Amino acid sequence: MNTVLHKANTRGDANHGWLHSKHTFSFANYHDPERMNFGVLRVLNDDTVSANRGFGTHPHKDMEIISIPLEGDLKHMDNMGNSTIIKSGDIQVMSAGTGIMHSEYNHNPDRPVKFLQIWVIPNKRDVAPRYDQITLDVADRHNKLQQVVSPNADDAGVWVHQNAWFHMTNLDEGKEVVYKVKDPVNNGVYAFVIKGAATINGEALKQRDGLGIWNVDTLDIKGDSDTELLLMEVPMTLSA
């Protein structure tokens, strides 16, 4: 088993006033050659956007972009004609492919919106741009794992152009779950503690800590408090 631990207070910090972003991996003005990615997981940004503010229209290309709202409502618009609101319990995915233009704004006039912005390097370049979002029943992750991302359009959650699976769980204190790695030969798992504290394969994690694990078949996860956790299984080798 190999591991890499990223404590919450070691992340890059970018405070633009209207946007406060914590970067697990190198992004924009934050650069650390030791923290460029975890396999094909390229970006994990923990964003807080002030009321009535947001990201103006900007481009993306050849990237799978997943947004997971944590608090508040986020408005999305793009050049494919999508104009939607995503909120806690929703999962959004964009396959940027040959190119997409979009904007994201805090839809709330009186409070910040908090969300995770995640970029996964695809296994296919120049695909047709695609947008999707779904609303999940959060009760289905209470003391068990709920799949929210997969490589298969017919499977649970949204799908991406990559051999990747994301799961979320809300564990009561003392509860345990076991995650079985889908592709233990090629993949690793990056665990991110959204709230609370957990122990994963003997490693104690606090809120907003991240732990990458590879060369392992299973993850033994215990809630050390009431805990919200995101697991991202991704290939460890770039293939696009």
UniProtKB/TrEMBL annotation:
Domain Pirin N-terminal: 11-120
Keyword Iron part of the UniProt annotation: yes
Gene Ontology molecular functions: metal ion binding
Residue sites binding Fe cation per the record: H58, H60, H102, E104
Top-level division of the source organism's lineage: Bacteria
Cofactor(s) this protein requires: Fe cation
Pfam families tied to this protein: Pirin (PF02678), Pirin_C_2 (PF17954)
Keyword line: Iron, Metal-binding
Domain named Quercetin 2,3-dioxygenase C-terminal cupin: residues: 148-234
Cofactor-binding details, from the entry: Binds 1 Fe cation per subunit.
Record bears the keyword Repeat: no
InterPro entries: Pirin, Pirin_N_dom, Quercetinase_C, RmlC-like_jellyroll, RmlC_Cupin_sf
The family this protein is said to belong to: Belongs to the pirin family.
Name the UniProt record assigns to this protein: Pirin
Naturally occurring in which organism (per UniProt): Croceitalea dokdonensis DOKDO 023
